[in-house]
Design brief:
With about 45 residues, this protein is mainly alpha-helical. The chain contains 2 helices and no strands. The mean pLDDT is about 85.
């Protein structure tokens, strides 16, 4: 049987951020209020 060739998985670069500092801060406040209770500060579930 021939050997199986495995290619390394390539992870794409994240897209450039296109928000202002004010929008980023407002989004953080919304996350803290509505999502942070369950997902925590680093967006890691467990609660």
């Amino acid at each position: 049987m021939p050997a199986i060739e495995v290619e390394a998985e390539q992870v794409p670069a994240p897209p450039a951020m296109t928000v202002s500092a004010a929008e980023l801060e407002a989004g953080g406040a919304l996350y803290t209020r509505f999502c942070g209770v369950c997902h925590g500060v680093g967006a890691i579930g467990g609660g």
